[in-house]
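Hey L., structure's done. Input below.
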Amino acid sequence: MLVASELKGELARIQPARGCCRRAELAGLLFADTGTTSSEAAAIRTLEHPTARVAVQLASAIGVPAEGPMPTGSPSAAHRGGGRRHLQVVLNRSAVEGWRWETAKACDRRAFMRGALLNASISMGPAGTHVEYVFRKRRQAQDLRSRLREVGVHAGILPRRGRSVVYVKGQEEVATLLRLTGANRALLDFEAGRVARDVRNRLNRLLNAEEANLDRTVRAADRQLQAITQLDEAGELDRLPEALREAAAQRRRQPDADLDTLASAMGLSRSAMNHRLRRLVALAADLHGETG
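Output:
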């Protein structure tokens, strides 16, 4: 099963070999602007140690000093039980000065998306996996949605408590995002979980269909047996054509059998057996109407 912390850990262990990719990944981390401090300095604020560590490593690799990570604020409301605090890394905006998505190479775009995913919220539950990127400005959210679309990931935007949230959900979209950012181990776990869910859902559908078929068979057999009993008690069963008497006798011998089993026992087609049994039910209904 895919775990969000393991996914972040895997992404954090990817070390871009090229300087352009390091700068691009740092640009992805800074894109949400989660902790702006001034026009020259920006702060990456996160609950995840791997994300904070990557920010420091990337900044150091491209020669930009970084402060932190350091705890800040009160424990997160979502994590009060564990007393977790946000970590903040402050660095100069010159770290990504001049970097542009429009002119970035394919490898840089993948690195950018990896950085953005490191700073995103990843939720995994019974309803499935979805990724959320939170922005203060709607324009930033629109820009990220456009960039995701350019790399083959469809996303939506929704407002939440004065923020704009870009969300990615759906098995295919999440798998594409994991593949794009290089989270190969997480992708394997995700695909394994998806296959397991698909098999389980398919099995449940088959079991439900089988249960429904069995229920219909039992109800039909009960109606047929009641009809045969009514015809017998009224003295009408022995007056019926031989074909109908044989069908009635076969149903009595196999009260729980399905239509195919009865038809096979009598050497008939399924439709022929069904016709005889329906005829018995109809005759009993006619008899009931005459005596009623």
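Residues 76-81 have pLDDT under 50 and may be disordered. The CA atoms of residues 227 and 280 lie 6 Å apart.

-- N.
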